[in-house]
Write a structure and sequence with these properties.
- Helix 4 packs across helix 7, helix 8 crosses helix 9 and helix 8 packs across helix 10.
- The longest helix has 25 residues.
- The chain starts with a helix and ends in a 20-residue tail after the last helix.
- It has three domains: about 150 residues, Alpha-Beta Plaits; about 90 residues, no CATH class; about 160 residues, Ribonuclease H-like superfamily/Ribonuclease H (Nucleotidyltransferase, domain 5).
- By secondary structure, it is of the alpha+beta class.
- The strands form four sheets. It has a six-stranded antiparallel sheet with strand order 4-5-6-7-1-8, with helices on both faces.
Length: about 425
């Protein structure tokens, strides 16, 4: 399945180059897969052979729904056909296929049985659609408007992507349609505790709702930190955790029309990296956070608790820096696969002077030997010129982004649909 970052990157490129986005749907996708293994099944009721008794079985040549081999068989069949059309598989994302010729470039995204096509040649796109329709039973849905819960609307300045319908359905599902909206997804500087209050009586419901909220992060970086906190208590949720999740849902209810506006911007990657040193009161581990922009379009954001306790703020910030550098290297590989040049090296903004010094200073001090792997990883890319690291003061960052250490607030305020 295609990665969410790849989807957002394609949206940003489509807005930049004014490419059209076409959508196809494969009918009964798993029935197209050809099995490489020997698989047998009992004769289905109502279709038993007249000439053979019931103890005979059927040998399958193609996959069926329910077989564990079905997804792989379908993917192999579809991939092999695209390769015969001249497509190449991206090294960074196996669900992204690129066809480049003297006539132009076509990009294809595959998500199980949903296909998105875009590129700089309408003729090539139509030829690919014709070839796919001949080989597979497909339905051409025309211009992309709805994909995996994403609503795509087209403006004079680019694309506006939101999840309004998906959010409203979730709020109705949990019975909060009459609740009062909240102005923020969580209380400022409030952290959830693992043993705060009484256990929740229905942990399965909690896991289901939080799992669905993770999918809302496709277009809502403003809830990333709040959802990240809620995900840490899946095994034993407390009533206080449920209250925090309800606050997220009430916030989404009042901001269901918010989304991301992808606009034409220079092809320049810049990111913000940060960490809250020993910020988790439960285990005193730090949380790394970052956001990556293509121009001013956010294409990747994430929060992740660090695996070990950081002994210094420099270590916590440098681990966040290393994670951001790894993601930027992956995005650069995507651009290389698509044969799209970047105008300059990616840039990381960090508010920790010591962490920046480590990325450029070849002298390795005894106090920082325990982060040697991350040091060499970032340092190597800075030396080669693949990456730039610059300082942004905490004062400036806090003025522009009030809760500076929450990566979700690094993104500019979500746009109303009317503002798009």
């Amino acid at each position: 399945m295609v990665k969410p970052t790849t989807i957002r990157l394609i949206f940003a490129l489509a807005a930049q180059f004014k490419w059209s986005l076409r959508q196809l749907d494969v009918k009964n996708a798993f029935l197209h897969g050809i099995l490489q293994e020997e698989v047998y099944m009992a004769q289905p009721p109502g279709f038993a052979s007249v000439t053979h008794p019931s103890n005979y079985v059927c040998k399958l040549h193609k996959s069926l729904y329910g077989l564990k081999q079905a997804p792989r068989a379908w993917n192999e069949r579809f991939t092999s056909f695209l390769l015969s059309l001249g497509f190449q598989v991206s090294q960074a994302d196996p669900s992204l296929f690129i066809q480049q010729s003297s006539k132009g470039t076509v990009l294809l995204l595959l998500y199980v049985d949903d296909v998105i096509l875009t590129g700089n040649s309408t003729q090539l796109i139509n030829e690919v659609i014709t070839a796919l329709t001949v080989e597979f039973e497909m339905k051409d849905l025309g211009l992309l408007h709805y994909f995996l819960g994403l609503q795509i609307s087209y403006t004079s300045e680019g694309l506006f992507v939101s999840q309004t319908k998906y959010i409203n359905e979730l709020v109705d599902k949990v019975g909060l349609q009459d609740s009062k909206p909240c102005a923020t997804p969580c209380l400022p500087y409030h952290r959830l505790l693992k043993d705060d209050g009484k256990p929740y009586h229905n942990p399965d419901q909690y896991r289901n709702v939080v799992g669905v909220l993770q999918y809302r992060n496709l277009t809502r970086p403003d809830i990333a930190f709040s959802v990240n906190q809620a995900c840490q208590f899946m095994h034993n949720p407390m009533i206080s955790h449920v209250i925090a999740v309800k606050r997220i849902l009430r916030y989404l209810k009042g901001t269901s029309t918010y989304g991301i506006h992808f606009k034409p911007e220079p092809l320049h990657l810049q990111s913000y990296s940060d960490a809250d040193w020993v910020g988790d009161p439960n285990d005193r581990r730090s949380t790394s956070g970052f956001v990556v922009f293509l121009g001013s379009n956010p294409i990747l954001w994430a929060l992740k608790k660090q695996h070990t306790v950081s002994r210094t703020s420099t270590e916590a910030e440098y681990r966040a820096l290393a994670i951001t550098a790894a993601e930027l290297a992956w995005i650069r590989q995507l651009f290389c696969d698509m044969h799209i040049p970047l105008h300059s090296s990616p840039l990381i903004y960090c508010d920790n002077v010591s962490a920046i010094a480590l990325s450029t200073n070849p002298v390795f001090h005894a106090k920082s030997k325990h982060i040697e792997i991350d040091y060499h990883f970032v340092r190597e890319r800075v030396t080669r010129g693949d990456l730039q690291v610059q300082h942004v003061s905490s004062t400036d960052q806090s003025k522009k982004y009030p809760n500076k250490w929450l990566v979700c607030t690094i993104i500019s305020a979500p746009l109303q649909q009317s503002d798009a």
